[in-house]
From TrEMBL:
It comes from Halobaculum magnesiiphilum. It is an enzyme of class 4 (lyase). HAMAP family: Nth. Pfam families: EndIII_4Fe-2S, HHH, HhH-GPD. This is Endonuclease III.
C-alpha cells in the first residue's frame, strides 16, 4: 500500500507531475475535424469504445456534413448508418434531434455554452464539457468518465461516488489550468495500467502514493471492496 501525500491538493500535484511525465502526448482519442463532428462523436461514445466510434464515424462524416443532413435523415437511416455503436437506435434519435435543434435555434452551428449544449438530446454535462473544451477551447469543468471516477477514488483524491459530485469535488482540488489534462491523463493511465479489473500496481508510477496499491492494500477504494 502506498502512502498518499498529506493533503488532497498535494496528492493531486504529485499525481499530475508523474502522469504528465508518463503520458506527455495524451489527448482526446476521438477523431474529428469540425465542431459538429466532435459533438456527434462524443454523443456516440457514451458506453461505447472510442475505437468503435472512430471506425463508424469515418463513413458517417463522409455522408453527414451539416446539421441539416442529420435533421433531414430518417431515424431508421441514421440507425443503419451508426450500426455497431451501442444503443444505436436511441442514438439515431439523438442525432436527428440535435440536427433539428441546431438548425432551428443555432443557425446550424454547435453552441458554446453549457446550458445550450445540455439542452440538446443525448447531451449531459460530461459530453458538453468535452465539446466546450475541444471545440470551443472553453473549460467550465472536469470531464468525469469511468476512468476518472475509478482512479480518483483509488488514489484517495475524492470519496464522492457519483460523477456530478466527483466533478464538483475535483474542481476544488485540481488546479484550473489542469482541468482538461487531468481527464486525459487519468484516461491514459486507466487504459494502460490502472484498469478496472486488473490494475498493474507493480508497474504503476503512482504505486508509492496510492492507498489502493494491491501489494498490501486490502481494499480497492474505487469500489470500497476487498481486492
Ligand atoms: S495501478 Fe494500482 S497503484 Fe497504480 S493507481 Fe491503480 S490501484 Fe493505484
Amino acid at each position: 500500500m502506498g502512502t498518499p501525500l498529506d493533503s488532497r491538493e498535494a496528492q493531486v500535484d504529485e499525481v499530475l507531475d508523474r502522469l504528465y511525465e508518463e503520458y506527455p502526448d495524451t489527448d482526446i482519442s476521438l477523431n474529428f475535424s469540425t465542431e459538429l463532428e466532435l459533438l456527434v462523436a462524443v454523443v456516440l461514445s457514451a458506453q461505447c469504445t472510442d475505437e468503435r466510434v472512430n471506425e463508424v464515424c469515418e463513413d458517417l462524416f463522409e455522408k453527414y456534413r451539416t446539421a441539416e443532413d442529420y435533421a433531414e435523415a430518417s431515424e431508421e437511416e441514421l440507425a443503419d448508418d451508426i450500426y455497431g455503436i451501442t444503443f444505436h437506435n436511441n442514438k439515431a434519435g439523438y442525432l436527428k434531434g440535435i440536427g433539428e435543434i441546431l438548425v432551428e435555434e443555432h443557425g446550424g452551428e454547435v453552441p458554446d455554452t453549457m446550458s445550450e449544449l445540455t439542452d440538446l438530446p443525448g447531451v449531459g454535462r460530461k459530453t458538453a464539457n468535452v465539446v466546450l473544451q475541444h471545440a470551443h477551447d472553453v473549460t467550465e469543468g472536469i470531464v468525469v468518465d469511468t476512468h476518472v471516477q475509478r482512479i480518483s477514488r483509488r488514489l484517495g483524491i475524492t470519496e464522492e461516488e457519483r460523477p456530478g459530485a466527483i466533478e464538483t469535488d475535483l474542481m476544488g482540488v485540481v488546479p484550473e489550468d489542469d482541468w482538461r489534462m487531468f481527464t486525459h491523463l487519468l484516461i491514459s493511465h486507466g487504459r494502460a495500467t490502472c484498469t478496472a479489473r486488473n490494475p498493474d500496481c507493480d508497474e504503476c508510477v503512482l504505486a508509492d502514493v496510492c492507498p489502493s496499491e494491491r501489494g498490501d492494500a486490502a481494499v480497492d477504494l474505487a469500489s470500497g471492496e476487498a481486492w
